[in-house]
Amino acid sequence: MATLIQENGIKELSKATHGVVTNHGMSRSHGIASHMVPDHEYCEPSKPQEMPQQCMEAGDATAPHPTPAEEEEETPEIDIMINNVVCSFSVKCHLNLRQIALNGVNVEFRRENGMVTMKLRRPYTTASIWSSGRVTCTGATSEEQAKIAARRYARALQKLGFQTRFRNFRVVNVLGTCRMPFGIRIIAFSKKYKEADYEPELHPGVTYKLYNPKATLKIFSTGGVTITARSVSDVQSAVERIFPLVYEFRKPRSAA
């Protein structure tokens, strides 16, 4: 490594004492004894041509490097929190909602909506069940968790006597939130981009729509951003797309 070269190579060469024998009972001022082999014959000849390379490596070792604070400022890390994953699936059979309401656990029959709601504790989710066999599940915090919950709902319906089959599972909506490391001048931002819609009388944030990936973002002056997209990967891509746009309108975050 460059550090070792600097310590064991260049410092020794600068003293010009390599290859000199000093432990034979005579000082350096008496010259070379007749029974001793001269230094230039005893030691390997020095290689001055290697000096520039060693110096260059030593110079690289002492070159200034960016501090961790500078690197963090150039590439900030933004944590995205997934608050809700909505999925839907079908059990491919007709469901008797009255039977589910009477025999099911954690069930509520909503006659005005023509559906039954069922809740799970693990994972903590809520399912909306229709007589056609269509089921919508909300409350999961990941796509994997949403699929686990959907299968448990299908199994619960099967235990109630229905010939259920787990089909057509898909994630239909994902809600995520993040916080930029700075405040945002949302008025100036909304004036520059036509995709931005700002109605302060209706909502305190700017509504910004992306088309690739397809996502809707709510941007607030505090730096908070709410993202709605079709998948978790689209939420992440939306944050990566919006960051350079809002960075131009950054401002110091106001104290809470």
TrEMBL record:
Keywords from the UniProt entry: Cytoplasm, DNA-binding, Nucleus, Transcription, Transcription regulation
Residues of the signal peptide: none
GO terms classed as biological process: DNA-templated transcription initiation
Superkingdom to which the source organism belongs: Eukaryota
Cellular compartment(s): Cytoplasm; Nucleus
GO molecular function, one term: DNA binding
InterPro entries in UniProt: TBP, TBP-like, TBP_dom_sf
GO annotation, cellular component aspect: cytoplasm; nucleus
Family note: Belongs to the TBP family.
PANTHER family linked to this entry: TATA-BOX BINDING PROTEIN
This protein's name: TATA box-binding protein-like 1
Provenance organism: Leptidea sinapis
